[in-house]
Amino acid sequence: MASGNRKHQPPPRAWQRMLSGRRLDLIDPSPMDIEIEDIAHGLARVARWNGQTSGEWAYSVAQHSVLVERLFAKQNPGIDRRWRLACLLHDAPEYVIGDMITPFKAILSSEYKSIEHRLEVAVHIRFGLPGVLPEGIKTAIKRADKLAAFIEATQIAGFTEKEARAAIARPRVVPDIRIKPESPVRTAETYLRRFRYLGGKQS
Question: 25 forms bridges with which residues in the sheet?
């Protein structure tokens, strides 16, 4: 009897309700259920480095994303603004699934990576970008991402430069950028300003 009842139980909930009222399905995300305000709000409250950073506020994924876009623009002068927008959105899925530190990501199942990829595709389509970015653009974004991680690690995450070069990246030149973690409200506002400056629109 109990076994028969279990067969009729509904599947586990796979959607997340957003403050905008949208219900985003993690298994089959629809671009039309994605709002930039939800992304900015969520990423501004997701801590990088599992919160192991110095400062009054947690260093958020939103603040990291703005830094990566800034570095990407410096490394790729004259590049089309839509690729800078793609760079700003490179960690957007984390507004739903959170930020996983690299050592933990390495041991996660392929299912996690599949969900992350589907969310990324939906985000890109929502904001008028190709669902899958060109390989050259992905490589350039990753380069800026690693440089940002190096700067963060040595300034606010307690890494020595030797540790960071061994575990994260080996940049030839480190730009003179000082990081100061900011409040979620201010960070979300900065993220939204960058989105609009780069031509981001709800498609």
Answer: 15
